[in-house]
Amino acid sequence: MAAKQELHNVEQALAKADFMAALSAQTRERLAKQGVPCTVEPGKLLFARGDKGDALFVLLEGEVEVRTSNEAGRDVRIAALKPYALIGEMAVLDGGVRSADIAAIRRSRFLRIHRDHALAALESEPKALLKLLAEMSHRLRKADSALEDAHTLDLGGRLAIRLLEEAGDGATITLTQTELARRIGASREKVNRKLH
């Protein structure tokens, strides 16, 4: 009975993911059954840049960051993903390797969907494929904007934009200076000086 309830919970979670919501209920049910649940502890990698792209993942709970390393070996955060983000779709679509590291910020649960199953679902339901392409275009636009900011704004400008994004409609930001620094590609010391 517990396994049936877990499968039902996974199906409900898949229906909340933008791309998966575009699939029929039957296809989501099939993917939930074919998928393999996995958990990643905070600070651990789901996968690393250069790994084989043999599956895509749906983030069921938790939070992860997409990151890479700079020349000095320091991690640079590219993006943060929350439930019910689709992860690893680029490598699944083009058959290439992973383009970035995915690290858990908090304990995170995923559904791992093998590349063959994901491609079969996309081939059978073109509307879902269009939804996936729209999501990838959205992420590319955000990456372009971040790249532009990195080359046109000084540290103060990048910090101000990040603070406004993190605050959203609220007035409180719960990030540490170290986290802020990683998100804008600076050192904690420089962020500390700029905040003062």
Describe the structure.
- By secondary structure, the protein is an alpha+beta fold.
- Helix content is 52%, strand content 23%.
- It contains nine helices and six strands; from the N terminus they run H-H-H-E-E-E-E-E-H-E-H-H-H-H-H.
- It has helices at residues 2-16, 18-21, 25-34, 89-94, 115-124, 126-152, 155-167, 177-184, 188-195; strands spanning 36-40, 45-47, 55-69, 75-81, 86-87, 101-114.
- Strands 1, 2, 3, 4, 5 and 6 form a six-stranded antiparallel β-sheet that branches.
- Helix 1 (2-16) packs across helix 3 (25-34), helix 5 (115-124) crosses helix 6 and helix 7 crosses helix 8.
- The longest helix has 27 residues, at 126-152.
- The protein is elongated.
- 28% of the residues are buried.
- Gyration radius (Cα, Å) is 18 Å
Number of strands: 6
Spatial shape: elongated
Report the sheet with the most strands, covering strand number, pairing sense and barrel closure: 6 strands, antiparallel
Report the mean per-residue pLDDT as an integer. Answer: 85
Oligomer: single chain
Number of helices: 9
Q: Which structural class do the helices and strands define?
A: alpha+beta
Q: Flag low-confidence runs.
A: none
Query: What's the N-to-C terminus distance?
Result: 56 Å
Assign a percent range to the helix content.
Answer: 40-55%
Query: What is the percentage of strand-forming residues?
Result: 15-25%
Query: Which series of helices and strands comes N to C?
Result: HHHEEEEEHEHHHHH
How do the helices and strands line up, and which of them pair or pack?
Elements (H helix, E strand, L loop, with lengths): L1 H15 L1 H4 L3 H10 L1 E5 L4 E3 L7 E15 L5 E7 L4 E2 L1 H6 L6 E14 H10 L1 H27 L2 H13 L9 H8 L3 H8 L1
Antiparallel strand pairs: 1-6, 2-6, 3-4, 3-5, 3-6
Helix pairs in contact: 1-3, 5-6, 7-8, 8-9
